[in-house]
TrEMBL record:
First and last residue of the signal peptide: none
NCBIfam families associated with the record: thiH
Source organism (scientific name): Selenomonas ruminantium
Protein keywords: 4Fe-4S, Iron, Iron-sulfur, Lyase, Metal-binding, S-adenosyl-L-methionine
UniProt GO molecular function: 4 iron, 4 sulfur cluster binding; iron ion binding; lyase activity
SMART domains: BATS
UniProt keyword 4Fe-4S present: yes
Biotin and thiamin synthesis-associated domain mapped to chain residues: 302-413
Alphabetical GO biological process terms: thiamine biosynthetic process
Name of this protein: Tyrosine lyase ThiH
Cofactor(s) needed: [4Fe-4S] cluster
Amino acid sequence: MTEAKEANSFLVDSARLSEKALERKHELENNPASRKSPLAYFPEMEQLDSTVEAEVLAEMEAYDYNRYTAIDVRRALDHTTCSQEDFKALLSPAAAPFLEEMARRARQETSRHFGNTVYLFTPLYIANYCENYCVYCGFNCYNDIQRLQLDEQQIEHEMQVIAESGMEEILILTGESKVKSSIEYIGKACQLARKYFRNVGLEIYPVNTEDYRYLHECGADYVTVFQETYDLEQYEKLHLLGHKRVFPYRFAAQERALRGGMRGVGFSALLGLADFRKDALATALHVWHLQRRYPWAEFSLSCPRLRPIVNNDKITPQGVGERELCQVLCAYRIFLPYVGITVSSRESAAFRNGIAKICATKISAGVSTGIGDHEEKYEGHQEGTHGDEQFEIADNRSIDTMYADMSSEGLQPVLNDYVYV
């Protein structure tokens, strides 16, 4: 049985996992030999002739952040342009006492390149079926949750409700199941979104260049892919089944998206899965290298931390407090002054209000990570009409409240910054 068929056979709606599924889950968790190599491509996966992965991973593996001192950090902050070596110093523990100064420098860079604007968008999850077993994700194929795939009418209704709030950008998300969320299904969602929104983003499973080209033709403007962690050893332990297990294919997703015509791409590690300093370094260098190969494209960074999921409220980030997160975000801004930085609803309202004044340029509002429930936020669901969420959010402010809060902080909320001619 292929891995995709195996995973699909374990997809559940509301029934408990079968005894066979539980046995397979136990085998994957306890017997590494039962898992596919994380470097082995599936036959249908496109392989790029690119050196970016090797360059990024070599820098990450060689990074010894404990060797940096206060002198290195001081030198980095005194430089007008932040080099890779400066960036490494700013990510190191030695930079912690300099956090306020880093924040001031980050704010100056943000003001210089983005003014006082903060861009608002909202995500729309249209399906939560998944063929992967990622141990930290609420959508994983072994998690006993309420599953749902919205049909075209339901997708359009959700979009109408969001558009009526005034929102002009939407991010369409699915679980990683090609059976329940085919390219054609996602493409139709993009076509519907183009009727209501100026900008359409995608956060879906990685696909080949021609599939990205098709989705772009359907209306998608940009693609975001979380590498989750750049630590291959840890990646192998966390992604036990499915196409997501193939580390290099996921790594090259943004490059395939750009080759497929997408205007922009987003990057992130999920901080707390592995050594967050090394993951932050790799994420930024991933962007840095691709900027030089695709200078016309728009690039953005996210900096999410782990959040509790359905059936497991003990999932928490490893050693990444708010001060550490702030340090990473400030270092990103100083190193990559032209790159957008998105801060998601995984973080508290207080943190997002503060970081928006320092370095964030994009913030989600009116968020739900469940399927089909923007309206109640909507009003009263009936049994079976919604799907469980991917993770718990920390900031559930509405679009109107977010807009008012950003304005009260002296920021200029923006709903659209792109005009087609």
